[in-house]
TrEMBL record:
Named cofactor requirement(s): Mg(2+); Ca(2+); Mn(2+)
Pathway(s) served: Protein modification; protein glycosylation
Gene Ontology CC entries for this record: endoplasmic reticulum membrane
Protein name per its UniProtKB record: Dolichol-phosphate mannosyltransferase subunit 1
Record's signal peptide: none
Similarity annotation: Belongs to the glycosyltransferase 2 family.
Main subcellular location: endoplasmic reticulum
Residue ranges of domain Glycosyltransferase 2-like in the record: 33-203
Subcellular location: Endoplasmic reticulum
Organism: Coemansia javaensis
E.C. number(s) listed in UniProt: 2.4.1.83
Molecular function GO labels: dolichyl-phosphate beta-D-mannosyltransferase activity; metal ion binding
Protein role: Transfers mannose from GDP-mannose to dolichol monophosphate to form dolichol phosphate mannose (Dol-P-Man) which is the mannosyl donor in pathways leading to N-glycosylation, glycosyl phosphatidylinositol membrane anchoring, and O-mannosylation of proteins.
Length: 265
């Protein structure tokens, strides 16, 4: 007898009598482009890529993963190239840059060659789990929302693994942004979001910030353009491998960007 035991878990969708996904139809022609900005994510990239591919495949969804690496010294790009060989060029697209140019411009760079009609933006460090993506897509389809944004700060959402300083920084950044600009979203600094591509194009063209404040400004612009925004609770789990790039410079840049927006919008 084999020493290996294979356990087959019933598909929750078919168990519930739902159609076997394409995420509950009807627009199965949709394609999802995931933008993954990376800086020193060598250890995280294979895991997140595998989980993304698994999630999309299980639901019969068309997808591509666009990796925007800023010449990471840890060799992230080499890992990305290997993953491209495994998953294929149609599923892994490489959009490297010559140096560390910040998160905001990484998204702009990534979207330029995206072929999906929907764009998903998320971190590559496993703090955003791909298993939440079906909930984003279902929510989008509910009322054909322009944007679905993940929120840590609502019932069902949460943050794990941060120390008190980091929690206060995040809460403080949200509180100040909400006070000054009130874009009507409960998690302004989160970066796990689904956009219609045309919507994201217009928002990005109007967005002037660089770095981490970019996420917050995008919600301000969405409100200006009257786009419909829905929220999905997410659990943010602090990275296990590698380090956060959110240092004092990024925090100062955030506050400066916030003030510039407040005085100009
Ligand atoms: N290409 C590129 N990628 C970058 C850069 N800086 C960061 N990244 C990538 O952007 C993602 C998030 O960066 P982290 O530095 O790990 O962010 P964090 O501290 O976990 O911050 C999280 O919380 C912030 C506050 O709530 C969020 O604003 C942020 O987006 C993120 O979700 C990771 O995939 C990281 O590799 C950069 O300059 N260039």
């Amino acid at each position: 007898m084999s020493r290996f035991h294979v356990s087959i878990t019933p598909d929750p969708d078919s168990a519930a009598g739902r159609p076997r996904s394409h995420l509950d139809m009807p627009s199965s022609h949709n394609k999802y482009s995931v933008l993954l900005p990376t800086y020193n994510e060598r250890d995280n990239l294979p895991i997140i890529t595998w989980l993304l591919a698994k999630t999309f495949r299980e639901h019969g969804l068309d997808y591509e993963i666009i990796i925007i690496d800023d010449n990471s010294p840890d060799g992230t790009l080499e890992v990305a190239k290997q993953l491209q060989r495994v998953y294929g060029e149609n599923h892994i697209v490489l959009r490297p840059r010559a140096g560390k140019l910040g998160l905001g411009t990484a998204y702009v760079h990534g979207i330029q060659n995206a072929t999906g009609n929907f764009i998903i933006i998320m971190d590559a460090d496993m703090s955003h789990h791909p298993k939440a993506i079906p909930a984003f897509i279902r929510k989008q389809k509910e009322r054909d929302y322009d944007i679905v944004t993940g929120t840590r700060y609502t019932a069902g959402g949460g943050v794990y693994g941060w120390d008190l300083r980091r929690k206060l920084t995040s809460r403080g950044a949200n509180f100040i942004a909400d006070l000054l600009l009130s874009p009507g979203v409960s998690d302004l600094t989160g970066s796990f979001r689904l956009y219609k591509k045309d919507v994201l194009h217009q928002i990005i063209n109007a967005t002037v910030s660089k770095g981490y404040v970019f996420q917050m400004e995008m919600m301000v612009r969405a409100k200006q353009f009257n786009y419909t925004v829905a929220e999905v609770p997410i659990t943010f789990v602090d990275r296990v491998y590698g380090e956060s790039k959110l240092g004092a410079n990024e925090i100062a840049g955030y506050l400066k960007g916030l003030w510039t927006l407040f005085t100009s919008v």
